[in-house]
Amino acid sequence: MVGAPESAEVSAAVREWLAGQDYGAVTDDAPPERLSGGADFWVYGLRFAGPGLPPRWSAPLVARVPAVAARYEMLRQDSAVQCWAAARGYPAPEVLAVLAPGELPLPVQVMARVPGVPIIAAARGGEFLELLFRLGSLHAELHRLGSPPADACPGTVPDRWLRLTRRLADHGGGEQLAASLRAVEVVQDRLQVADPVLCHGDFHPGNVLVAPGGRALHVIDWTNPGVGDRHGDIARTLLWFEIAAVAAPRRTGRMLMRVLRRRLQRAYLNGYRRVLPVDGERVRLWRPVSLLAIWSAAEASQRGLLGGEPRLPASLIGWAARELRRVTPGTG
Fold it and tell me: In the chain, what are the domain boundaries?
């Protein structure tokens, strides 16, 4: 793992790659900037100029840099999924390239920069509920795409979503985590479906951008996709509203989210049901998987195993463990 590269380093790495594509001289058309840093990715804004650049490379771009070099192959696979969805008209940013580690010791994913801010920051009150309704419909539209072909398949769920859990269980993650994983594996056959679809894996108001004016939505952060039961994807989204209450930095924020959680979840589900039906029993069946995934992510974040900066609070670990004891008796 390495620290966050400077914006100029990321821009230089992309310009060096472009130089090898016969586009001629390429310069920065605007100063590169770091936009954000997450638990396992840093995000940069880039803008290039050059007489030989295609229009899509001259437009505003985003570069996503994982904190671990070994994520290159996974990043390529996730980009293939994102491109597959975008090619079918789904509102995902176009991925232009995935650069292997080189002079910059980390891979770089370069994509079009879409306008807007996350739904979570866009509106409040009734307008927020309307956006959550649209969020649900947009999620269902993703599931209506079906399953990508083998060359773009990111792996199946729940295996993809439990990969980190298994890694932690094999390296001293604690008996309760291991016991919860075993309990889920016992019923794993029940999680399979005859009609698997593409699942985003992290579909929530922080990963959907709303453009100025509120008209267009774009889905970002395609770093945890899988193919499987769409109800597993729904369960992960519903869990986000609970996580927001537990992880809110201020007590007033936590209390507000607890009060509003069911109302917000209902708005999302109403939007989803406008497009596809929801089997509540199957959503409940997937809850232990979702809890294991967030527990593992919080644990790994606190241990520094994801690289980057710890973003998930330690409070999520205890909360997820308690919830798992409640929904999987005998794991305490």
Answer: 7-112, 117-327
CATH top-level class of 7-112: alpha beta
The CATH number of the structural domain formed by 117-327 is 3.90.1200.10
Dig out the tokens for 324 from the structure. Answer: 């798992």
Distance CA 42, CA 124 (A): 28
Per-residue model confidence as pLDDT tens for the chain (332 residues): 568 899 999 999 999 999 999 899 999 999 999 998 766 899 999 999 999 999 999 999 999 999 888 999 999 999 999 999 999 999 999 999 999 999 899 999 999 999 999 998 887 767 899 999 999 999 999 999 999 998 888 899 999 999 999 999 887 777 888 888 998 888 889 999 999 999 999 999 999 999 988 889 999 999 999 999 999 999 999 999 999 888 776 665 566 667 688 999 999 999 999 999 999 999 999 999 999 999 999 988 888 777 655 577 888 999 999 999 888 865 55
Side-chain-facing half-sphere of 53: CA atoms under 13 Å = 22
Q: Is the peptide bond before 310 cis (omega within 30 degrees of 0)?
A: no
Angle at 324 between CA 323 and CA 325, to 5 degrees: 90
